[in-house]
Task: structure prediction
Amino acid sequence: MKRRWSVVCSCALLLVSGCAALLPSGRQETPTPWQSYGDAEAMFAKIIPNQTRLAGLKDLQIDPATTPNLALLNHADLLRRFATGSALTAEVLDESLRACLAVRARCSALEIEHVHTDRKRVGNFWLDTFNFRRKVDVTGWRYNILIVLQDDLVVYKLWSGKPNIRDVEEERNPLGPLQGVGDSLLRRSL
Result:
């Protein structure tokens, strides 16, 4: 009897102490050759306008044929992106970009958006499991690159990004697992 009691207590203690590790986690990552924000910055620095050619981009692992999630933009896409409003004139655009847009079909661009986020549920296992309180820590980084080409020569480059994404998502349901029951019953009756 004592042995059975110690096994039950050990199992209960193990269950309670390891509960946080049982919470789900997730990851969102756009497959690219860069493992960090710094890697993406270092690659971007190697692209030199009016010197780097499409073959050089391939050496940097930017290849329209093989790089996942790389968008190809034509000159019309670029015109929409850089359209100047009534307060701005075309003169505010970089000279190389203006010259490229002027040759129309010979002007194109490559756009890469890399997103890397980790989602980890934290907090009380039982409150999360029974849908009373759910808290998610989101961390990661994002890097966007636009490379404008005239024929096969890079004439303009632009980047933006978030080197340190940190968000907390929190959801509270005072009724726990019963929180959505009214809505689901109402939908069934319709």
In short: The radius of gyration is 26 Å. The mean pLDDT is 83.
